[in-house]
Amino acid sequence: MSSAVAAPAIGARRRKKKRDRPGHLVVHVILAVGALLMIAPFLLEMLISVETFAEATAVPMTFIPHTWRWANYTDVFSAMPFRQMLVNTVLMTAARTAGQLVFCSLAGYAFARLRFRGSGIVFGLFLSVLMVPSQLFLIPQYEIIQDLHMLNSLPGLFLPGIFSAFGTFLMRQFFLQLPREVQEAAYIDGAGPFQTYWRVLLPLARPGLIALAILVIIWSWNDLLWPLVVNTDPSSMPVSAGLATLQGQYLTNYPVLMAGSLMASLPLIIIFILFQRHFIEGIAFSASKG
Amino acid sequence: MVVVTEQVRSEQRAVRPRRQRSARRRLEARWGWLLIAPSVIGLGVFSIWPIFRTFYYSFTLWGAFGGHTWDGLTNYRTLFSDSEVLRALRNTIVFAALSLLSVPIGIVVSALLNRPGLRGLSVYRTLYFIPVITLPAAVALMWKFVYNGDYGPVTQFLKLFGIHGPHWTSNPSTALYAVAIVAIWSSIGYNMVLFLAGMQTIPRHLYEAAEIDGAGRIRQFFTITLPMLSPTIFFVTVIGVINALQAFDLIYVMIGKNNPALNDSETIVYLFYDKAFVQSNGGYAAAIAFLLLGIIIVFTGCQFWLQKKWVHYE
C-alpha cells in the first residue's frame, strides 16, 4: 500500500527533474539579461572613460574608440585635487571604522553582559536615536564642528561618525548571542569585566566585528551629505563630495568624469569582490538583528 | 562541558559570601558605566543634544547675518502653506512609492536564484550586488550620461524607432522618474541578498510536500515562498521606505541646482539641505527636518498597522 503511494511520487519527482533542465535554461536567460542591465552602465562608463570628448558625445555612439585615451585618467588629477580626495576618503573611512569598532563593541558588551543601574534607560535613549532620521542632527553637528574650528579638516569629517547607536545595538545583539557560560567561566577564573571582554568575548565576537566594519566602510565611503556640509574646500573633501560638487564647476567633460567616477568607486567594488562572503553575511546579519 | 560549569557555578554561588557578591556587582556597575562612557558622551553630544537643539531651532527665525530669535510656530505655519515644501513632499512620496518596485523585482530575482542545483549563483549575486556598494555620486554621474538628451544611449536607442527623447533629467515631467529608476536599479541587489537569506530558511520539506500534492513551481511560489517570506518582505519594505524618504544623493548629483526640473524632483532632504546650508535659514530647515520625522513616523506606523493583515509569523 505505502509502496504503491510512494512509487508514483518518486516517478513524479524524477519526471520533474527532467523537466527542470530546460527550465534552468530559461532561468539563466532571465538572470543573465537582468545581470546585463545591472552592469551595462558600468560597461558604458568604462568605454566612455577611454574615449575622446568628441567620440563620447558623437551620434551615433562610438563603440570602439579610435585610440584608447588613457590620458582621461591622469586628467582627473589635474582637474581636481583627486589624489588628496582619495586620501581623505580612505582616512575618513578608516577613522570611522576604527572608532565604531572600539566604542560600539565596548558599549555593546556592557549593555549585553554587565548589570548596572541605568543601563536600561541609556540603552532606550540609544534606541530612540536609531529611530530619528540623521538630518535632525545635522545643523547642531555642523555648529559643533564649527565651534571646534574643524571645518574643512579631516577630524571634522569623521568625528561624529565614530560613534553609532546602530553599531552599539548591533554589537549588543551579537554579544547576547554568545553563550553565557563562557563569561561565567572567566569570572570564576578571576577575570574582571574588562578582561572578560578583551580576552574572552571579543575574540568570539569576530564575525560581529567584521559585519560592523563592513557596514561602516560601505556607509562611510559612500557618504555624501555630511562631507558636503562640513568640508566645502575641494582639497579637504572626500571623493564622493568632490565628484558631486566639481562635476558642474570644472568639468563637463564626460570621459574625464567617467574615469574619475570609476577610480572613486573601484576600491570598494574590489574589496567587495574579494570579501564577498563577509559582505553578504554582514548585511544579512544586520538585517536579522534590525 | 556545559553541565560541569553549570554545576560548578551553582556550588560557587552557594559558598560565595554575600559581601563578595555585592563587591562583584559594584565592580560590574563601575565597569559598565566606564565602557559605555565614550558612546554616551559621543552620542549625547552628536545625536541626543542635537535633537533638542534642532527642535528648539524649529521655533526660531534666523537672521541674514547670523543669530536667531524666538518666532513661535511661524515656521510650522509657513510649512503647510509653502508650495515648495508641499511639492517636495509630493515628490518624496512619489519617489518612495516608485522605489518600492525594487521589492517585487528583488523577490523574483532571488526566487530564480533559489533553485537547488542552479549554477553560477555567486556570479549572479556579485553582479546584482555591485550597484549597491558603488559610490552614489559615481552612479549618479554615470546615469546622467545614460540619460543625456543629445547623445545619451537611451535617446540614441529611441531614435532608432524615430522617437525623439527629452532631456530626461532636466525635463520636469520625466526627471523624478528617471532618478527613481536609478534608485530601483541600485537597491535590487540589497533586497535580493535579504530575500535569498530569507528563502534559505524556508524548510525544504514544505516544497517536497507541495510537490507530492502536485503543486507546480508557480503555485509553490505563491502558497509557500511568499507567505513564509512575508516577515522579510515587511522588513525590506519598511527599511526601503525610510531610506527612500531620505533620498538626497541622486537628486543632488543628477538634478542639482539651476535645473529647470528641480521644482518637480527635489525631495524633502534636498530642500532641507538647501535651506540649512545654502540659504542659511536654519530655523525653517529645522522645521522641515521635523516634518520629515513626522512623515517617517506616519508611514512606518501605517506599515506596522497593516502588517497584521499580510505578514505571517510562525
How would you sum up this structure, described in words?
The complex is a heterodimer of chains A (290) and B (314). Chain A has 2 domains: 2-71, no CATH class; 73-289, MetI-like (MetI-like fold, Orthogonal Bundle), CATH 1.10.3720.10. Chain A starts with a helix and ends with a helix. Chain A has helices at 2-49, 53-56, 71-79, 82-113, 119-131, 135-147, 154-158, 165-177, 180-188, 193-204, 206-222, 225-230, 239-249, 254-274, 276-289. With 290 residues, chain A is mostly helical. Chain A is 78% helix and 0% strand. Chain A has 15 helices and no strands. Chain B is mainly α and 314 residues long. Chain B has 2 domains: 20-57; 74-310, MetI-like (MetI-like fold, Orthogonal Bundle), CATH 1.10.3720.10. In chain B, 73% of the residues lie in helices and 2% in strands. Chain B is built from 14 helices and 2 strands. In chain B, strands 1-2 form a two-stranded antiparallel sheet. In chain B, a hairpin with a 5-residue loop joins strand 1 and strand 2 (68-70). The model of chain B is unreliable at 1-8 (pLDDT under 50). Chains A and B meet through helix 1, helix 4, helix 5, helix 6 and helix 9 of A and helix 1, helix 2, helix 5, helix 6 and helix 7 of B.
